[in-house]
Each structure stands twice: as C-alpha cells, then as structure tokens.
Amino acid sequence: MEVLEKVIKVLAEYKEVDASTITADTTFEELELDSLDTVDLVMELENEFGITIEMEDQKLSTVGDIAALVEKSLA
After folding, report:
1. Per-residue DSSP letters for 11-23?
2. In angstroms, rounded to a whole number, what is the distance separating the alpha carbons of residues 75 and 21?
3. Range(s) of the domain holding residue 30
4. How much of the chain is helix, strand and coil, in % rounded to 5?
5. Which of 5, 21, 51, 60 is within CB 3.0–4.6 Å of 73 for a Cys-Cys bond?
6. Would you call 18 a catalytic residue per the annotation?
7. CATH number where 45 lies
8. What is the pLDDT of residue 42?
9. pLDDT tens digits, 13-57
10. Rounded to whole angstroms, how far apart are CA atoms 73 and 19?
C-alpha cells in the first residue's frame, strides 16, 4: 500500500468517513479538521508508519501535503 493510500485510510477512520471520498487534493477545511485534529492525526500517522514527523514551518492544507511530509520522513 502506498503512503497516500495509508494516509487516506487513517484519515477516513479518524473522521469516520468513506475513504473513497478523500483524495490528495482534499483540504483539511473540507474534512473539517482543526489544528487539534491535525496534531492528533500526525500522532496517528507517526504510530502507523513508525516515524517522527517534524511539524515546524509546515504549511499543511491538503491530504497530499501530509502524505508528502510522511514520505519525506520515511526517506
């Protein structure tokens, strides 16, 4: 499973929505994610991928942004 698919799966479970409704271009605003949700989500992704994600100076606004951040952390 590629990173984007896993991020979408985690997001879908977190927000209790159908994963097929989420794409790389889906914004956090569309998912109604606030800053606290984003922190919770990052912690979920760190656990899922076994990585540490550096959030400072990150402008995360879409699902694709967070998938790219995860990929960078895996490298």
Report:
1. HHHHHT--GGG--
2. 28
3. 2-74
4. 55, 5, 40
5. 51
6. no
7. 1.10.1200.10
8. 87
9. 999 999 999 999 999 999 998 888 888 988 999 999 999 987 766
10. 23
SS3 call for 75: coil
| Maximum Cα–Cα distance across the chain | 30
**Distance of alpha carbon 53 from alpha carbon 71, whole angstroms:** 10
Convert 26-47 into a string of H (helix), E (strand) and C (coil): CECCCCCCCHHHHHHHHHHHHH
For the chain, give the number of residues. 75
Query: Is 41:13 a contact under the CB 8 Å cutoff?
Result: no
Confidence (pLDDT) at 48: 92
pTM for this entry = 0.87
Q: How many domains does the chain have?
A: 1
50: its two tokens: 């076994």
Tokens found for residue 51? 């990585």
